[in-house]
Amino acid sequence: MPLRALARVNLAAIERNCRLLAAAAGDAQLCPVVKGEGYGHGAVMTAVAAQGAGAKWLGVATANEAMDLRMAGIEARLIVLGAVSPEELDIALAADADLVVWSEAFAGAAAGSRLHIKLDSGMGRLGTRDAELATRLAGREDVVGLMTHFATADERGDSFLGEQLDRFTDWVAPLRDARPELIVHAANSAATLRQPAARFDMVRCGIAIYGLDPFGEDPLAHGLEPALALETYAAAVKPCAPGESAGYGRQFVATEPTVLATLPIGYADGVRRGLTNNADALIGGLRRPLVGTVSMDNVTVDLGSDGDVAVGAPAVLIGEQDGERILVEEVARRLDTINYEVTCGISARVTRDYHRDGEQA
Ligand SMILES: *Cc1c(COP(=O)(O)O)cnc(C)c1O
Asked: What's the total number of domains in the chain?
């Protein structure tokens, strides 16, 4: 019988996705992004897989994330993409990470490390909008890179990506002429796949290395392979007569005789309550609807009157079973969110189990 809730991660799929993206990026190198515990897949194991696929860089969001990778023996060049407080700076430097800067004050505090100047070309979040300040900072000897980040790369047909790209290209051109060794980078997964001119010297791909589609569509259309499956099992199977209900608030009341399975996974595992009467599970090789309120530790599934599912039967909330599949993108659509939030939300209570195409890793 499986553990109550398992996130099975195929490291071979992550490797293949990294190779595919590196090839798509042409001459630009790939910086796989493993922040947020590798988008829920596990940062260290994702980093190992990415390195196995030839990645020389890894992106994280925080100083602690960089340190966690170093402590686990990851040797790739690390870049902390997010803001670093004065308190965190020592941790980032001890992890020998590259840092992103957009102010004189921070550049001064981080002097002597490896700095990437961030121009805010339109994201309106981190980075400076002051191109003169950015150019002044870029003259420092400890600067090794120039970067920006796109706000709308995942929106097909939008024109703002082009505007940001023009602004960034105008800014980097003279700096690059003066110092060709500077590493110029801008693209996330969506821009890498959508806009060749955004690739520059390096692309920072997160979502796509996990085989998830940055456009929220079918990842297979880009040749990406979903790496994560969320699995549980039928802990109880019992008949439910008309008028009987399941779960808090009686959000499901049977209208005809049926059979319900209880799966021991709930919102404390990251199965969001918004999936109440709004999701499917694969069990016994068929898609069956989740019925009733998602609770903290359990959900209930309607097996139908012909349900022939035994206690212990494997159940899949994300992934494949007997040729049927549920994509993260489907779950995201039902929750009116994005695939990123779905896998990042799978909590630490869910055991991560690593394999390579079915072979225990
Ligand atoms: C998270 C992040 C990325 C990766 O974005 P994806 O859409 O997951 O590919 C790239 N750059 C920066 C600055 C980020 O914060």
From this structure: 2
